[in-house]
Amino acid sequence: MEADGAAASFPLAKWRSDFSRAFQYYLDKSTPHTTGRWIGTVGVAAIYSLRVYFVQGFYIVTYGLGIYLLNLLIGFLSPLVDPEIEVSDGPALPTKGSDEFRPFVRRLPEFKFWYSITKAFCVAFVMTFFSVFDVPVFWPILLCYWVVLFFLTMKRQIVHMIKYKYVPFNMGKQKYGAKKGPGSSNLSKD
């Protein structure tokens, strides 16, 4: 009897393994295409928003999604090692002008941030098909509470950024000019 159960579950295990491998392959292929990934996520978010708008419900699911996204945003904007909490031997944020420059390392990398947001919207979208998650609430109160929570959290994060003098965003790859050695001139030699 056990051999029959193991044989019956083998095709399912093989399918799951193949699916997982293919999913990881395409996830790895999408890694360098940041703009395309985020456009896809905006599309998924728009589909979710339209679903909630037309169903006129699932405000608790949307509120929970908003709190989760806020938590992800805080992780994305925070340094890996918080100077207020931890002391590290590795890279740290410079606190004085004379400190050596160290690159900003996020607590939550961009790819994981994107993947978590996309997955959260997909899970929330699936939840909208089950009426057990459609709890009747007065949604303007939830929206006001979330907006207040967002502004208080962002204010605290911005104060932290100013105090430790870091900017969690980089605008493209830094470009350097040609290095000129001593004695070199701008005149071309004929």
Automatic annotation (TrEMBL):
Keywords: Membrane, Transmembrane, Transmembrane helix. It is a multi-pass membrane protein. Pfam families: Rer1 (PF03248). The chain crosses the membrane at residues 58-77, 113-131, 137-154. GO terms for biological process: protein retention in ER lumen; retrograde vesicle-mediated transport, Golgi to endoplasmic reticulum. One of its GO terms (cellular component) is Golgi membrane. Involved in the retrieval of endoplasmic reticulum membrane proteins from the early Golgi compartment. Belongs to the RER1 family. This is Protein RER1.
